[in-house]
Design goal:
rod-shaped; mainly alpha; 4 helices; Four Helix Bundle (Hemerythrin (Met), subunit A)
C-alpha cells in the first residue's frame, strides 16, 4: 500500500514540478536572450553614433578645405591688385620708394587673410598649416618689399606655394573620400 501512495504522490508532483522547472528554464532563457539583444542594440547604437561622428567630422573637414581653397584664391586676387599697384608706383618713383596701398585694396585683403587664418586652424593636417603660413609670409613679403625684382620673386613664391597648398588639399580631399568609401564598404 505504501508503494501505491508514493507512486500516486509522484504522479501528482511530477507534472507540477516539470511545469515549474520548464517555466523557470524558459524565463532564464528569455532573460539571457534579452541581455544579449540589449547588448547588441547598445553596440549597434554606439556604432551608429561613431559612424555619424566620423561622417560629420569628414564633412566638416571637406567643407573647411574647400572654403580654404576659395579663401586662398581671394587672397591672391586682392594681393595681385596690390602688387600691380605697387609695381606701377615703383616704376614711377623708383625702387626703394615707400609705397602705401590704398585702403580700398587693404580692407578686402585683410578680410581675405583673416578668412584664411580662421579656416586653416580648423584643418587637422599640420602640413596645410605650414604651407599656409609660408603662403601668407610670401604675400606679406611681396606687399612690403620696396624693389620690383623682390616683389616679382615674392609673387612667384606666392603662386608656387598656392599650387602646393592646392595639391595638398586635393590629396586630403581624396583621402577623405576614400575613407568614407572604405567605411561604407566595411559596413556592407
Amino acid at each position: 500500500m505504501a508503494d501505491l501512495t508514493v507512486s500516486t504522490n509522484f504522479d501528482k508532483i511530477l507534472p507540477v514540478a516539470t511545469f515549474v522547472l520548464g517555466y523557470i528554464g524558459k524565463w532564464l532563457q528569455d532573460w539571457i536572450a534579452f541581455r544579449r539583444t540589449r547588448e547588441r542594440e547598445r553596440e549597434a547604437r554606439r556604432e551608429t553614433r561613431l559612424d555619424d561622428l566620423f561622417e560629420r567630422r569628414n564633412a566638416f573637414q571637406r567643407e573647411t578645405l574647400l572654403k580654404l581653397q576659395e579663401a586662398i584664391a581671394e587672397v591672391l586676387k586682392v594681393a595681385s591688385a596690390i602688387w600691380s599697384y605697387r609695381m606701377a608706383k615703383l616704376r614711377e618713383a623708383g625702387d626703394g620708394a615707400k609705397i602705401d596701398f590704398p585702403a580700398d585694396l587693404a580692407r578686402p585683403r585683410d578680410a581675405a587673410v583673416v578668412e584664411v587664418s580662421i579656416l586653416y586652424v580648423r584643418v587637422r593636417d599640420e602640413q596645410v598649416g605650414k604651407l599656409i603660413e609660408e603662403f601668407l609670409g610670401n604675400v606679406a613679403a611681396a606687399e612690403t618689399t620696396r624693389e620690383r625684382d623682390a616683389i616679382k620673386k615674392a609673387t612667384d613664391s606666392c603662386f608656387a606655394t598656392q599650387t602646393l597648398v592646392n595639391k595638398h588639399i586635393g590629396r586630403l580631399l581624396r583621402e577623405l573620400d576614400d575613407s568614407l568609401f572604405e567605411r561604407s564598404q566595411a559596413a556592407s
